[in-house]
Every structure is written in structure tokens, then in C-alpha cells.
Amino acid sequence: MRRPAVLLTLAAVLLLGAAFVVFATRPARTANATPPDAGVVEAAPVSTPDLPAVSSPAVGALFLDGAHYCTASVVHSDQGDVLLTAAHCIHDGEGGDYLTGVTFAPGYHDGVAPFGYWTVADELVAPGWSSSSDPDLDVGFATAHQTGAARSLESLVGANTLATGTAFEQAITLTGYPDDSEVPAVCRNTTSKQDTYQLKVDCAGFPTGTSGGPWVTSPDPKTRLGTVVGVIGGFEYGGDDPDTSYSSYFDTDVQALYRQTTARA
Q: Based on C-alpha coordinates, what's the Rg of the chain?
């Protein structure tokens, strides 16, 4: 089970180049459903600073009570402050509520937050997650804010494209922060279809803490920014084997959550 330890504790007591957004129609919930073709909506380019060697600074660690417990990434929005992660990283699921006091450290490594800590707000998950912990809807969005910041988060670190309705088989770069590591794990491999609403990828060394880590296709060699088609989560909260990870399939439910988030960001 990839579920972060901090959520299990809470449950026991009671969660550069040009950027653009890609959306497609949600497949019908049948065993034979296949992803439709995606369309593209372009946005203005963003600038990024020099990047650390390990991964894109648009990927970072989520912190609660002084410890990192999940992973999140910046996705493009006009406001420049939208985060993407797993639903179980920001909401307890059935019978639970949204987590409070969460912060985001983009580009975090070796105990250093090079862009500071950003307050996580406006958390949003699908009703199917909050009411029944539906693993097919283990995707969440939020916004990130920093008091006194002169620039938006996205203008500082860049952002990935969000895509829905894409193919089940794609070459991706997977990034996540293991609970017991101060640097992100990074892996490249090809995804496969777990079932109609789940993706799967074999990548060694992605244990608890990597939940919410983005699955990025076609990353730019310099900025390491690309198109995000999944996050570690879904089946078994992302998987009970650290060498195999899962993601809920990004369909129109994810598209709707993104649009809700950007409408109020």
C-alpha cells in the first residue's frame, strides 16, 4: 500500500518551454472503452531558472508537521499556482476530510527548499473519492501560495501540461519523493493498461511518499517539463510493491476537477 503514513495516522485518530492544457472526451465506463484523441489548448510560455540535476523543480515534496509525506507537481494555469497530486495525499477519502497545514516545496532536495515553502489551499478531489475512496478517482488538485511572493509559482519553476484521454501505452518519466529519502526517485519506462481506469508502470524504488508523483511524457531535455498523464495513486493507493506503480486514468473527471480549480484559483 503506497498510502502515506501520515494519512494512516490521521485515519486511526478519526490528507521551459511553452505550457498548454490537453483535454479529451471521457471514455464510457465499460470494459471495452478506449481513450479518444486529445485536443490542445495553448497558453503563453513561461520562464524557468537554472534547474537542479535531479529533476524538474516543478516537482516537489508535500510536507505536513515538518516531514514530507507525498509528492506533487505544478501544472499550467493562467494563475500560475495549480498543483496536481493524488487525492489520497490531500483527502482522507470515505468518512474523512481534507488535510490542513500542508505545504509544498518545489525542487526539494537534500533538506533544501530552493524556492521556499508554499501554503497549499483550495484542495479539490472528486465526489467519488471523498464519498467512497474510489481508486479510479485518486487524483487531486490544489493551489499554492507564498506570502510576499513577487512572482507566481509557475513563473519561478515552470509547469507541466495536463493531458486527459491519452493512450494507455506511453513512455514516461516518473518522479517521486520516498519518505526515507531527501532526493527524488526518477525512472523512465513505458506504461501499460491495468484496467479501463488504471495505468501501470514498472519502476524500481517508489515506496511510500512517492504518491502523487507525476507521470510525464516527452519531457524537454533542458527544462524536464512535459505532459503529465498520471500520478502515482489509484489501485492500492499507488501499489503495495515499490517496484510497480499505478495511476487513475486521466479522463473528463480529471478535466472537470482541473477546471474547477482554475476557476477559483
A: 16
Residue 170 lies in a domain: yes
Check if the beta carbon of residue 165 is closer than 8 Å to that of residue 250: yes
What pLDDT, on a 0 to 100 scale, did the predictor assign at position 107? 96
Does residue 73 fall inside a structural domain?
yes
CA-based nearest residue to 131, from 98, 95, 90: 95
Does residue 196 form part of some domain? yes
Evaluate whether residue 52 is within a structural domain.
no
CA angle 74, 27, 259 (to 5 degrees): 35
pLDDT of residue 55: 79
Q: Which helix (H) or strand (E) holds 261?
A: helix 252-264
Domain that holds residue 114: 5-27+36-47+57-264
Q: State pTM to two decimals.
A: 0.84
**Mean pLDDT of the chain, nearest integer:** 85
Q: How many domains does the chain fold into?
A: 1
CA nearest neighbour of 245 among 230, 228, 226: 230
Listed in sequence order, the residues at least 6 apart from 165 whose beta carbon sits closer than 8 Å to its beta carbon are 23, 24, 25, 26, 27, 35, 36, 37, 38, 250, 251, 252
User: Which of 166, 155, 153, 79 lies closest to 119, judged by CA?
Assistant: 153
Answer for the pair 225, 159: CB distance below 8 angstroms, yes or no.
Answer: yes
Under DSSP, is residue 109 helix (H, G, I), strand (E, B) or coil? strand
Q: pLDDT tens across 8-45, in order? A: 444 433 333 333 344 443 333 222 233 333 333 333 33
> Which CATH number is 61's domain given?
2.40.10.10
pLDDT one-digit tens code per residue, 49-60: 333 455 799 999
Cα gap 196→34, rounded to integer Å: 8
| Nearest residue to 136 (alpha-carbon basis) of 127, 144, 145 | 127
